Amino acid sequence: MDWITIVLFFAGLGLLVLGADWLVKGAARLAAAAGVSSLVIGLTVVAFGTSSPELAVSVRAAWLGQADMAVGNVVGSNIFNVLFILGASALITPLLVAQDLVRRDVPLMILVSVVLLLLSLDGGLGRLDSALLFAGIVVYTVWIVRASRRENAAVAAEYEAEFGGEAVRRAPVWQSIVLVVAGLGLLVLGSNWLVEGAVVFARWAGISEVVVALTIVAAGTSLPEVATSILAAIRGERDIAVGNVVGSNLFNILSVLGLSGLVSPSGLTVIPSMVAFDLPVMIAVAVACLPIFARGRMIPRWEGALFLLYYGAYTVFLVLDATKHEAKEGYATVMLQFVIPLTAVTLLVLALRVFRLRRRGVPIASAP
Question: What pTM value is reported for the model?
Fold first, then answer.
């Protein structure tokens, strides 16, 4: 391991922080200038931009005929986005969840995840399947932008109160666009350098290639989302922090897999283990968002910690499975028979509690 690798690793970390800062600033200003909410900017410009590493990796892998990498990258990133990124962001500051996200975007994320599983049951995604997915991202983007523009007056009042009218008017649109583009560029470059350095570190430490591929490389393409959502939470742009994750997951399935399947010479093959385990986990994670988000439309710190614990549990299982460790069966038994059922019961109780409070006319946000 040479000094260049060390320099690139820390330089990549610095570029991620700087790029995320520029992206959040530019996105917030574009939201004010365009008359759309910061939630919509988080769901589109920020989410699509921070998913560019996933797009580059999956499309290239599909073009080269490496379908497992193309599909696995998307599924793994979606699980990472919800459990790790939202968990870490909520630990920094409790995240407020917009009503539109609970009513519209999270159910859509669940629906799209289920559709992906259904399309994969025959063992692959053909060109027709991929074209259907890609058409979905076009329709979704046009839909949410038009819906947001209809709320222009409310949005203007929101930004007047949050940023001050003079500050918004003094920021030229071209400067905001430059900030967004430059921020995205720094995020992509920084994530590449950080991943390359992390892989070298792992090999130098004697960690197996399989473990590196399942952990560092898989999470590496989501580093822009990590930096952007966490910094957005710190800066108070909590709509961007949450919207970035939901929007990225939608973009990954509809656009990344859609384009990957269209450029692949023979479509995308989905291996049986992915259909049997990883895709259901991705759906379960998406479903878990609904009752958690709906509870007061807030993600408190303890639920953020729960998300992080579950991502750790999922990663441990992947490592045990990849290394064929003897503890895998016992670990799987504990997770399937105790941890997951207990969590499901907890989520059900939360959902029923929210439903009862609404029927009684109690404001959810005021509920303890």
Answer: 0.77
